């Protein structure tokens, strides 16, 4: 893993969490239990503290950083989609930040809110709990329903299982040059989400 000490601060990463070898974690960073940090993610605690509470996932090519002197917290089960930037913002419990969204300094995203893909949240914005936010600049368009947050929570649980799966089975290999006759089929754990969606669509 690319884990770096910076000015006497060494990252603290719980053993149940998984940081991909192509991710970078620097300095004053604390990562709780069952967190997943994807390849290409950069979590840079040089100018302030970054805390990821239990069950947080930070997916591929995300950046987490801050203005000098700030400290930030991603609360339990916060979900940060591919390519998002969290710059000096705090994320509430079980919220979701969509792919390529940008969340600026001194923003607070309320618990169980959902920020749409490619949304821009300007500095010092306070998003109330259970808000659905989209656009540039981001605007609240409605409240998050019970079904929406239940669907989000089910998806986040897959990411909370992923660290264990990675510890058990992820390894660097040479690629095969032909498709083998006995190539294993993909696991059908996604059917759980499909069943959940179908059962909650009425």
UniProtKB/TrEMBL annotation:
GO terms for molecular function: transferase activity. Keywords: Transferase. Gene3D superfamilies: Hexapeptide repeat proteins (2.160.10.10). It comes from the Bacteria. Residues 179-202 are annotated as: Disordered. Residues 189-202 have a biased composition (Polar residues). Residues 179-188 have a biased composition (Basic and acidic residues). InterPro entries: Hexapep (IPR001451), Transf_Hexapept/Carb_Anhydrase (IPR050484), Trimer_LpxA-like_sf (IPR011004). The keyword Methyltransferase does not apply. This is Transferase hexapeptide repeat family protein. It comes from Mesohalobacter halotolerans.
